[in-house]
Design goal:
Layout: H1 10-20, E1 24-25, E2 27-32, E3 38-43, E4 46-51, E5 54-60, H2 69-77, E6 79-84, H3 90-95, H4 106-109, E7 114-115, E8 124-125, E9 130-142, E10 147-159, E11 164-165, E12 168-169, H5 171-174, E13 177-179, E14 185-187
Antiparallel strand pairs: 1-13, 2-3, 2-6, 4-5, 5-10, 6-9, 7-8, 9-10, 11-12, 13-14
Length: 198
């Protein structure tokens, strides 16, 4: 099969993209608006960019041409906390994907503990295995829709002790959740090793 993506509808292009680029890590992002009202939402167009400084990429689509709360909050306050969802938190993570009004507190909606962060204003999820406090360094609009693309610098990390092996997060202990196409997910419970050439 050969496909020219320019011939696809927006929905068909999305469905094809999210079925090809798998598994996708999920950035579960907490922000606050200018009045300090918290927001929490997951995004699977997310990934690492740099380690010096530690930087991640977050792509936030728009809803009917308007910025989602996460994008609007990032542009207003320039701060966020990015969590890595696991099997233990996946149900709560999916609840926070609901199209809720901007005044709704998704921490409360999903029954999650909002803990104060150390270097940024948004709270972090107490139940999360990994929470990375971040500040906005770059923003750009990408594509025809467009989407909001953010580069976020990690300024502090919270790691649960029970998911560590030799001081680093262990995917087999975490059961990190990745996004596949549609409503399908996977987890990191059964990794395998391939030695890199020396």
């Amino acid at each position: 099969m050969n496909i020219d993506p320019t011939t696809l509808s927006g929905r068909d292009a999305y469905d094809l993209m999210v079925s090809c680029v798998v598994p996708r890590p999920i950035g579960w992002v907490s922000t606050v608006d200018a009045d300090g009202i918290p927001n929490l939402a997951p995004f699977s167009f997310f990934g690492g960019v740099s380690t010096d400084p530690m930087t991640v990429m977050l792509s936030v689509g728009r809803r009917k041409g308007s910025e989602k709360d996460t994008a609007a909050n990032l542009l207003a306050t320039r701060e966020a906390v990015i969590h890595i969802p696991t099997r233990a938190t996946e149900s709560a993570m999916v609840k926070t994907a609901a199209d809720a009004e901007s005044h709704v507190d998704e921490f409360e909606l999903a029954g999650l503990t909002a803990l104060p962060s150390l270097k940024v204003r948004p709270p972090h999820v107490g139940e999360a295995a990994i929470a990375m406090e971040a500040v906005l360094r770059h923003h750009m609009e990408v594509g025809n829709t467009p989407v909001d693309l953010f580069l976020l610098e990690i300024v502090h990390l919270h790691l649960l002790d029970e998911i560590l092996t030799d001081g680093k997060p262990d995917p087999t202990k975490m059961h990190v959740v990745g996004r596949l196409g549609g409503s399908d997910y996977c987890d990191s419970s059964t990794p395998h090793q391939i030695e890199w050439p020396g």
